[in-house]
Amino acid sequence: MAKVCEICGKKPVIGRNISHAHNVTARRFNPNLQTVRANIDGTARSVRVCTGCLKAGKVQKVNKTKKAKTV
Fold this sequence. Notes:
71 residues, 4 strands, 8% helix, two-stranded antiparallel ribbon, elongated, mainly beta
């Protein structure tokens, strides 16, 4: 599964680690993705969304409601 936000399209960025001895190695900065049940087009769907979109309110989460027990 690709590490891409389904709302904003944020994806990994390439960077470099530089040690004290100035040894340079490649690294990836991955987005902080969370799997969330969201309301999309009126249906509940599981989507991978970055935390920036969650905080901004771009995704409406689906509430899990428990059914009342009948006695």
